[in-house]
Specification:
Layout lengths: L6 H23 L6 H75 L2 H7 L15 H13 L3 H14 L6 H14 L3 H14 L6 H14 L3 H14 L4 H16 L2
Helix pairs in contact: 2-6, 4-5, 5-6, 6-7, 6-8, 7-8, 8-9, 8-10, 9-10
C-alpha cells in the first residue's frame, strides 16, 4: 500500500498545534497569584517595604535623639543666660546705689564747703596706684576715698589713675570724679578744667550730661554768668528727660531770680 507523502507531516503538525494550544491554555488559566514569577516579585516587594520601615524608624529615632540633645543644651544655655542677667542686674543696682550715695554726699557738701575742707584735712594717701592692682582695683580704691570724703587723697588717687591707666574704660568716670572732688572743695577753676576734659576727651561718655551741668555750676560760682547760662541751656536742650536737665533748669531759674 502506498502512503501519501504529506500524511506524516500533517500528523506531526497537528500534534504540535495541539500541544501548543494546551500549553497556552494552561498559561491563560493559571491565576497571577499562583505564578512563580509573581510570587517572587511579591516576596521581594515585601522585603523592600520591611527594609524601608526599618530605615525610616531608625532615621526618626536618630532625629528624635538629636532634638532631645539640642533641647537639653538649650536649657543649659538658658540657665547660664539667666544667671548672667541676674549678676548684671545686681551689679547695676550696686553701681547705682554707690553713685547715688556719692552724689547725695557731694550735694550735701556743696552747701557746706567748710565740712568738705575739714573732711579732707588728713594727709595724702600713699600706695596708689596699687602696685599689683589692675585699672578696676585702682579706680575702686580712688572712688572709696571719694566716698569717705577724703578729698585730697581722692584727687591724688584719680590723677594717678589717669596717668597710669589713660586708656582704661573707666578713664572717663575717673576724670569726672576728679572734677567733683575739686568742685566740693571749692577749687572751681580746677573742677572746670576737669569737666571740660570729660567733654573733649570722652564725648560719648555717659558722664557728659553731668559734666556739662557741672561746667554750668562752676561758671556760676566763678560769676561767669553768660558761660553758665550757655552750658545749662545746652543740658536742657540736649538731655531734656534727665536729672541733669532738671537740675540745669533749676539753676537757670535761680539765675533769672537773681537777675544774672
Amino acid at each position: 500500500m502506498i502512503k501519501h507523502p504529506f500524511t506524516n507531516t500533517t500528523v506531526v503538525r497537528a500534534g504540535l498545534l495541539s500541544t501548543a494550544v494546551a500549553l497556552l491554555s494552561g498559561c491563560v488559566t493559571t491565576p497571577p497569584e499562583a505564578d512563580p514569577v509573581v510570587q517572587k516579585l511579591s516576596e521581594l516587594d515585601s522585603r523592600l517595604l520591611r527594609l524601608e520601615r526599618v530605615l525610616a524608624n531608625q532615621s526618626l529615632l536618630d532625629l528624635s535623639q538629636r532634638i532631645e540633645a539640642a533641647q537639653a543644651e538649650a536649657r543649659v544655655l538658658r540657665g547660664q543666660v539667666d544667671e548672667l542677667q541676674h549678676q548684671v542686674t545686681q551689679s547695676q543696682t550696686q553701681t547705682r546705689e554707690m553713685y547715688g550715695d556719692v552724689d547725695r554726699r557731694l550735694s550735701a557738701l556743696e552747701g557746706n564747703p567748710g565740712a568738705a575742707a575739714a573732711a579732707g584735712a588728713s594727709p595724702a594717701v600713699g600706695g596708689l596706684p596699687l602696685p599689683s592692682g589692675d585699672d578696676r582695683a585702682n579706680y575702686q580704691a580712688a572712688f572709696d576715698l571719694l566716698k569717705d570724703a577724703k578729698y585730697p587723697q581722692a584727687i591724688s588717687a584719680f590723677k594717678n589713675f589717669l596717668t597710669t591707666f589713660p586708656n582704661s574704660a573707666l578713664a572717663d568716670n575717673a576724670q569726672y570724679w576728679l572734677g567733683e572732688a575739686h568742685y566740693v572743695t571749692r577749687q572751681y577753676p580746677d573742677a572746670l578744667r576737669d569737666f571740660r576734659t570729660v567733654l573733649e576727651k570722652y564725648p560719648d561718655s555717659r558722664k557728659v550730661p553731668d559734666a556739662l551741668l557741672k561746667i554750668g555750676y562752676c561758671n556760676y560760682e566763678l560769676k561767669n554768668w553768660s558761660e553758665a547760662r550757655s552750658a545749662l541751656n545746652q543740658v536742657v536742650q540736649r538731655y531734656g528727660d534727665t536729672t541733669a536737665a532738671r537740675l540745669a533748669s533749676q539753676r537757670l531759674a535761680k539765675l533769672d531770680t537773681e537777675g544774672r
